[in-house]
Amino acid sequence: MNRRKFIQQTAAASSLILANQFPIESLAADNQRNKQxxxxxxxxxxxxxxxxxxxxxxYQGMGGVANRKKKIDEFRQTNDNILLLDSGDIFQGTPYxxxxxxxPEMKVMSxxxxxxxxxxxxxxxxxxxxxxxxxxxxxxxxxxCNYNFTNTxxxxxxxxxxxxxxxxxxxxxxxxxxxxxxxxxxxxxxxxTYNHPVAKANEYAHLLKIxxxxxMVICLSHLGYDYKDDKISDKTFATQTEHIDLILGGHTxxxxxxxxxxxxxxxxxxxxxxxxxxxxxxGCLKFDFFQQNDKDxxxxxxxxxxxxxxxx
Length: 312
Prior knowledge:
The protein has 312 residues and is an alpha/beta fold. It has one domain: Metallo-dependent phosphatases (Purple Acid Phosphatase, chain A, domain 2, 4-Layer Sandwich). The chain is 20% helix and 27% strand. The protein has 7 helices and 15 strands. It has helices at residues 65-78, 95-100, 103-112, 128-134, 186-189, 197-211, 234-239; strands at residues 5-6, 16-17, 33-42, 82-86, 116-117, 147-148, 161-166, 169-177, 193-194, 216-222, 246-248, 260-263, 269-273, 281-292, 295-307. A hairpin with a 2-residue loop joins strand 14 (281-292) and strand 15. The longest helix is centred in the middle third of the chain and has 15 residues, at 197-211. It is globular, with a radius of gyration of 19 Å. The chain starts with a strand and ends in a 5-residue tail after the last strand.
């Protein structure tokens, strides 16, 4: 199979959408379409299992597992080829974590059918041993390629990547995390060592795209979208990478109304998206894969942000 690549992206459908409608018009005729992939994603949910209280605050009625499940179920009723992903900071923020240390969060994500996630800094707030224990409640992998967990309770429990097959498409998913030193108490992450995310991400993206022949490579990032200083962010990270098609970010709680497009190290397009925090929004990106001249090429993408809100 020839290597797939992206050559054009359109975000014409980007908006805050409350209705159950999503434009999926193709740039080419329907009979030329080969396959479509829908990616739903969250980040920085922070133990928000219940919606925000109806107290007149900015986010009243938003977030919560039931609201998210309703929106995810709506997509699954009309789309057969779906990935559900998370970019870290699953834990910390409500009494659920204080009382149960992450067990209900992992069980909820498993019940919702998450395919993969990555680790955020707050996922160490109960300690590295606790995170290792809570993994038993997850039926999906947490991936990270730039933390070395040798001689820690997470050794052999956090793969650098996973490969998921959907409707004949082969999707490689890797994860990268932020520098923990100075951000997390050292006793919480133990002997975990940090490697620079660019070098490790490029290593595994090359493996996934070139050697494993993945049609698409997604990076789940908990680096943060953008900073005023020189700290590595998704925007700077993207320009130094190769073979990654999409970055789904977290950490900075950034509400993007559409994916940000930039060029990678090779001058090819790479997309970045992030959907705030607390499960207030559910990100959605749809990618059309077309076959042209014996090559599978992705020609078009559509994006939208869906509020997860209690019915009024």
